[in-house]
Amino acid sequence: MTFSAQKCGVCFQPPSIILIYRDNVQEKTRQRIMPIRNFTRFSDCSKAAEQMKNNPRHKPYLEGVSLHQLEKLHRLLRDHLEGESLSDSLGRYHHEHTIDPEEDMNKLDDKELAKRKRIMDELFEKNRKRRDDPDFVYNVEVDFPQDEHLESCAWDTESDEEM
Q: What is d(CA 108, CA 90) in angstroms, rounded to the nearest whole number?
């Protein structure tokens, strides 16, 4: 790969994606402005992001940029076209892409449940420790405090003979 993406952002006027990348052959940092044409407030952000990533002119530069990030930038642009402020759009996006631990996911429909599972999978992969990570420890032992009162359950006290 001759290009490595460093930063990616959106410009509202004219609508475009701005990529700051490193040219590994010439060892220089460069900027690429990719205009977004025929994009309206009714456009599908995921489809537009996929088209941009697969565009032959932009494909070598966008290899290091995730489709999720491009979709987020297109969504910010669409919200701007609808008249929403950047802070409101970012706040709503953050709220939609975080998991509420108190939420009862049994009451969600299949589409929303799949969305939550995708968010949890992304968070897991982000926090996952691999063998080649510098702070990886193979056998982690943790001592939990024993001075606290432990609650017992009925199934803890039953013996195998009673079952």
A: 24
